[in-house]
């Protein structure tokens, strides 16, 4: 029997729902996410069961509902509230960043144009991490296609018709051949299967890390996995955990848009981008999001 949970929250005055919706609008085929003018429907695996999360934005508030194809289990209401607040970026101290840097000669102009910008988060750290692996060293369009094929390969469908982004157990059960048939390189397939096994077996406690955010330990353990590099870690910390201080100097769109913001002709190197972003700690990743927003090229 389906379970329905609901939650309503008040939004800050300068909240920008369009930033959140744009992040989930990446796949035009709407296999697992369906975005409308002021709403999102997202399929996800919830405690091993197909679930559909719906977010509806109205003036000053957001209404969230979660429909689970089965029993909810204990603690689901509190977990839903926490997930929605993270997904909407409401745990991010953007006001402090904007206040401190609003007079900066380049960043101040970004803030003036994009006041209230928050980083949209994935529903879970595992989703963010696997999306980062899929997107390594390929275009955004190619990464979206790989993500779609991964969702279809695991085959979890909610009663609403939406496919569900898989959990670690579902990906762990895939074969190398099925991932290769979905378009993943052998290296990425191996990395995905390794991550899924480590998470499913409790060796990478991603959900527990949400409570304590031991950034150094997260970075160390993820970097020990073959196929995981600094960009993947920084992206997963940002989109999965909401950590605002990852240096995304290795991101091509960040460097390209930084070149535009600085008004220079020569391309910005990774070292130059790292040095420039360093001055904005502890908000380096939030600043990267402002740079992404310059061209709406956020991965």
From TrEMBL:
| The reaction(s) this protein catalyses | Hydrolysis of alkylated DNA, releasing 3-methyladenine, 3-methylguanine, 7-methylguanine and 7-methyladenine
The alphabetized UniProt keywords are: DNA damage, DNA repair
Q: What class of enzyme is it?
A: hydrolase
Q: Which residues form the DNA-3-methyladenine glycosylase AlkA N-terminal domain?
A: 8-124
Q: Name one GO cellular component term.
A: cytoplasm
> Which Pfam families does the entry link to?
AlkA_N (PF06029), HhH-GPD (PF00730)
Domain named HhH-GPD: residues: 134-296
GO process annotations (BP): base-excision repair, AP site formation; DNA alkylation repair
EC number(s)? 3.2.2.21
Highest taxon of the lineage: Bacteria
The molecular function terms in GO held by this entry are: alkylated DNA binding; DNA-3-methyladenine glycosylase activity; DNA-7-methylguanine glycosylase activity
- Supply the InterPro entries for this chain: AlkA_N (IPR010316), AlkA_N_sf (IPR037046), Alkylbase_DNA_Glycosylase/TA (IPR051912), DNA_glycosylase (IPR011257), HhH-GPD_domain (IPR003265)
What is this protein's record name?
DNA-3-methyladenine glycosylase II
Q: What species is this protein from?
A: Thauera terpenica 58Eu
- Lineage, please? Bacteria, Pseudomonadati, Pseudomonadota, Betaproteobacteria, Rhodocyclales
